[in-house]
Write a structure and sequence with these properties.
The complex is a heterodimer. By secondary structure, chain A is an alpha+beta fold. Chain A contains one helix and eight strands. Chain A has one helix spanning 2-40; strands spanning 51-55, 59-65, 74-78, 82-89, 99-103, 108-115, 126-130, 133-139. In chain A, a hairpin with a 3-residue loop joins strand 3 (74-78) and strand 4. The longest helix of chain A has 39 residues, at 2-40. Chain A is flat. In chain A, 19% of the residues are buried. Chain B contains one helix and ten strands, in the order H-E-E-E-E-E-E-E-E-E-E. Chain B has a five-stranded mixed β-sheet with strand order 1-2-8-6-5, with no helix packed on it. Chain B is elongated and about 80 Å long. At the A-B interface, strand 1, strand 2, strand 5 and strand 6 of A face helix 1, strand 3, strand 4 and strand 7 of B.
């Protein structure tokens, strides 16, 4: 009894202090984790062009903004479970005597690889370039589509 | 120019702006990247506005202020679920004040592949004339 009172109490206090520290550390991790997650949501890869990938029951949709890119300067390659988009954005030369006020648009080459699940039908991939937006429609395999199950 | 042709493009986050007035409709507003260059006779503006259809683009020039507004209707169908979102879509808005006097009747706008090309010819008066200095 005495032993416990003498030694039990200080250890209990000590532990509570450590608990508090541990609690604080966990809280900090949570706060920073949330901050990091917020920034990581935008452009995870850091590779041009930024893509938006969506899906519905039948297809995957890959969309990317490519203003001023001609379809002949764009190369899309599909393999079993990946998609490669590469190309070049060209900006036509201006007259030699023209003076620039703003020059924010950039020209250059780009290439990007997108990994996709195995459940896709790569033979039926379709791509369209409209108003500077490239849309690639990748159909899912018949087996991967969800099936409605009726309850008898 | 040759080196810029071959360099690799980098991802740049779209620049979000707050509009001229408080919004009543929800949605993001971005400022488009532009090139503006001037020759002796005209001013040319190129703006990257991917996703804007010609009928959704509004170009307004009054009292030397040029306003570009482009609405973007999302391509996404309602049944699509987001898997990976790297960029956001929204309206485009940008204003410029022009110092030169522009011949409003000759303004020409073309929208191809998400790039607007706006040609603003200068009024005859504003085109510089060479002044010859006479010696007596």
């Amino acid at each position: 009894m005495i032993y416990r009172r003498l030694f039990g109490l200080p250890t209990w206090r000590l532990r509570s202090r450590f608990d508090e520290l541990e609690h604080m550390r966990r809280q900090m991790d949570r706060i920073f984790g949330e901050l990091n997650r917020g920034s990581a949501e935008k452009s995870i890869s850091g590779v041009f062009p930024a893509i938006n990938l969506t899906e519905n029951t039948d297809n995957y949709y890959v969309r990317t903004e490519l203003p001023g890119v001609q379809s002949q300067d764009l190369d899309i390659q599909a393999t079993v479970n990946s998609l490669a988009i590469s190309g070049e954005r060209k900006i036509p030369e201006v007259e030699a005597n023209a003076k620039y006020h703003r020059r924010e648009r950039e020209a250059g080459k780009f290439s990007r690889m997108i990994g996709l699940p195995d459940n896709i039908n790569m033979d039926a991939v379709e791509a369209a370039l409209e108003n500077g937006i490239l849309t690639i429609v990748i159909p899912k395999k018949e087996a991967a589509k969800p099936r409605q199950i009726t309850i008898k | 120019m040759a080196d810029t042709q071959t360099k690799a493009l980098k991802v740049r986050d779209k620049q979000e702006v707050t509009g001229p007035a408080e919004q009543t409709r929800p949605g993001l507003i971005f400022t488009p990247d532009v090139d503006i260059f001037e020759t002796e006779t005209e001013l040319t503006l190129l703006a990257d506005i991917p996703g804007v259809k010609p009928e959704d683009l509004n170009i307004d020039l009054r009292e030397n202020t040029l306003t570009l507004t482009g609405e973007v209707t999302p391509d996404k169908v309602s049944d699509e679920a987001d898997v990976l979102m790297e960029y956001e879509t929204g309206k485009y808005f940008r204003q410029f004040s022009l110092s030169e006097v522009i011949d409003q009747s000759k303004i020409d706008a073309q929208l191809n592949d998400g790039v607007l090309r706006l040609t603003l010819p200068k009024v005859e008066k504003a085109t510089p004339r060479k002044i010859t200095v006479k010696t007596v």
